[in-house]
Design brief:
14 helices, three-stranded antiparallel β-sheet, seven-stranded mixed β-sheet, 39% helix, Phenylalanyl-tRNA Synthetase, Chain B, domain 1, alpha/beta, Rossmann fold, 2 domains, globular, 23% strand
Length: 367
């Protein structure tokens, strides 16, 4: 057994043959921050890491978020020695345990014994949907549920029949499809919670390195409405988007060119992030990169559920695209809200229509 030879955050650990994705550090950083905020506000924190991998995430929740108890479950018993080594301090302190069960079995066990957790982390490979309903059973009302999806082709509309099977939604391809992936996950967890008479509220939503991560807070009252759960229409003719409600299905056409809109959904149409929660996380964050992401999250939180890429603006405007910062400044000067988005480094989110973005980009390009 190799000794502790890796470092992330404030902890040292080893990987060996266990799963560890270095590129997911940002998602773990944000999870630890949100958990820390929860611990400070409630005075206690119990974490269930249902798919622990090498155990570094569970270790960070214990050490950095000061979790009172951590249950690290890793379905592969062959890496049990590695997980145990990484969590040996927490186990010795009576603050952690390690098991090797199917995640659904763990969630059922929690429900059966009314052993509900403040934070349930489901870092699955592929879609989280096979674990969604049971994961809600293990989550405390008011607690946090942190979900992962790595199934980008399904979420971005390249496999629409697959999205129908996985999410109960029809996903179509368009320039803002990566945001669609986050919204499909949020919509699915909200609809599943509504079946149980519960509601959800996004804390933050992250797309990074082809991985989708959403953290939601479980609420006691249903929150599903026609305003926050519906469809996104995209016009392949002019490139414009429109939110489409259930009562207008089959009747929506593009106001610009009269073409029928291509619909994706149903999906979450509300805010991607909770600004108040982000501000609390910022008070604890010290890493400049994390602070930058939290700033972006705050700016884009409640803007429309899509973005415009610079490439699309250049193609449709038939121009050499000026610097994004100039377009953003010009849109703000006209009274629109406009910001970069963390989802795509070559895109912008705004409440301005695409027609205005093209006009502004042409003016910026000519001066």
């Amino acid at each position: 057994m190799s000794q502790l030879n890796q470092r992330e955050g404030q902890v040292e650990f080893t990987v060996g043959t266990a799963f560890y994705n270095r590129e997911s550090k940002l998602a773990r950083d944000l999870g630890v921050l949100a958990a820390s905020v929860y611990r400070r506000e409630t005075g206690s924190l119990r974490v269930l890491d249902a798919m622990a991998g090498c155990g570094v995430r569970a270790l960070r929740y214990w050490r950095e978020s000061e979790a009172d108890w951590v249950w690290a479950n890793e379905g592969n018993p062959e890496v049990g020695e590695i997980v145990g080594l990484n969590l040996q301090s927490a186990i010795a302190s009576g603050c952690a345990k390690v098991t090797h069960q199917d995640a659904n079995r763990v969630f059922f066990e929690c429900y059966q014994h009314k052993d509900y957790y403040d934070l349930v982390d489901v870092d699955s490979f592929g879609s989280p949907m096979p674990y969604l309903s049971t994961a809600l059973w293990a989550t405390k009302i008011g607690g946090l549920l942190y979900l992962t999806s790595t199934d980008g082709r399904t979420a971005t509309g390249h496999l629409p029949q697959g999205s129908l099977k996985v999410y109960g939604a029809f996903a179509r391809a368009h320039p803002a499809a990566h945001e669609q992936g986050l919204r499909l996950m949020l919509g699915a967890v909200q609809q599943c919670a509504a079946q149980k008479g519960l509601g959800i509220e996004p804390v933050f939503s992250l797309f990074s390195g082809q991985i989708y991560r959403v953290m939601v807070r479980l609420r006691a009252k249903p929150a599903l409405t026609e305003r926050n759960y519906g469809f996104l229409g995209y016009c392949h003719g002019c490139g414009e988007y429109r939110v489409v409600g259930w009562r207008k299905l089959g009747r929506e056409i593009c106001a610009c060119c009269g073409r029928a809109l291509t619909l994706s959904g149903p999906m979450w149409l509300g805010s991607l992030h909770n600004r108040a929660e982000l501000e609390k996380m910022q008070t604890l964050a010290q890493n400049p990169k994390i602070l930058q992401f939290l700033d972006l999250f705050r700016a884009e939180a409640d803007l429309p559920p899509y973005f415009y890429t610079l490439g699309e603006i250049g193609r449709r405007g038939k121009i050499d695209v000026p610097a994004r910062s100039r377009i953003l400044e010009a849109l703000r000067d006209r009274g629109y809200r406009a910001t970069p988005t963390h989802i795509n480094a070559q895109a912008l989110k705004t409440d301005a229509p695409l027609k205005t973005c093209l006009e502004v980009a042409r003016l910026c390009s000519s001066t």
